[in-house]
Design a protein that fits this description.
single chain, DUF3788 domain-containing protein, globular, alpha+beta, DUF3788, 7 helices
Length: 158
């Protein structure tokens, strides 16, 4: 494949798929856009503040179909940041015990996020919620949902 063909395929792609190395902050910001990158950065800072020293985010390459994603995990999956073209997606997988806890906080979550949660597919390993993080309401919802996955170590108003 010549370089111009490769560039066209890359530009048409939804995910960052270059196999050479994980994307750096500048590449992520350029790919998802400045507004989405602001939420990417803010959610990362919120996780660092609420769970100090718990996670060391790890870049994973899912190949040409799924591209790069940034996983937060400590023994169990916590969440995954997915840089998409002009969007920041967040995946959270809820096991059966965690799903029963979501029922207890439904009144703290926005209607749009609840709809996404209710419509998310449940697989053998859990319910896979994929959110587009693009406003402060969804950022708040992620804080509530992630606290179900793992109780925060720090009390923060982030």
């Amino acid at each position: 494949m010549n370089k111009s063909e490769d560039q066209r395929n890359s530009e048409a792609a939804v995910r960052i798929v270059s196999p050479d190395a994980p994307p750096d902050a500048r590449t992520v910001k350029s790919w998802i856009g400045a507004s989405a990158y602001d939420y990417w950065r803010r959610l990362g800072e919120m996780i660092d503040a609420l769970y100090p020293g718990v996670f060391v985010p790890e870049w994973l390459n899912g190949g040409k179909k799924h591209g790069w994603s940034l996983r937060y995990k400590k023994s169990r999956s916590f969440c995954t940041f997915i840089p998409e073209r002009n969007a920041f997606k967040l995946q959270i997988t809820f096991g059966s015990k965690e799903r029963s806890k979501v029922a207890l906080v439904r009144d703290q979550i926005s209607p749009g996020t609840l709809e996404a949660y209710d419509n998310a597919t449940t697989y053998h390993d859990g319910k896979w919620l994929l959110l587009t993080v693009d406003d402060d309401v969804i950022l708040h919802d992620t804080k509530v949902l992630l606290s179900i996955k793992r109780k925060p170590k720090a009390n923060s108003n982030s």
